[in-house]
Amino acid sequence: MGAAVNTEDDPDVELMLAVQRGDRSAFERLFEKHIASVIGFATRFVGTRARAEELAQDVFLQVYKNRGRYEPRARFSTWLYRMVTNACLSEVRRADYRGHKQSMDQPGEDGEDPPQVASARSSEDDVVSHEILERMRGALDELPPQQRAAVLLARIEGFSYEEVSESLSCSVSAVKSLIHRATVTLRDRLKEDCV
After folding, report:
1. pTM (2 decimals)?
2. Average pLDDT of the chain?
3. Among 1.10.3470.10, 1.10.3720.10, 1.10.60.10, 1.10.1740.10, what is the CATH number of 1-101?
């Protein structure tokens, strides 16, 4: 989809090329650098941290397995998030996906409140902020998967439209359309919640 990227512009490309040459410490550095953001993205996408952690592990296993096929055509993160997005899209398409989703209002598997809920109890402003955040999460969850992926990649992860297009394997105009439709849907949904 594009020309090879200059590795000086993206040190992760050089690390991935080192992984191709068998450098395990380079893989560990990539893992340590990206695991938290991959888990965060996957959690926002699939709704549960436990499943997001499993997906993230699967993705990094795929990164390692596919190291020989890696070609630096874009930023490393674009290539990585193509795999992450595909894993998340596959997850939400599974028939039993809804059964695995945990509400952010419910206690976690260990019986404790999620950190956001526990910290939201500190003041009235925090409670209001938490309610807004929960409405946003609910609205995001209701978006069609492709729209959700485009919004998360562009608005949360900071990817350019071109990078989102590579990650989703679609055209830039399709990305713009996905983001526009998602933005309109989110705006309308949040207006309804405020009425």
Report:
1. 0.70
2. 81
3. 1.10.1740.10
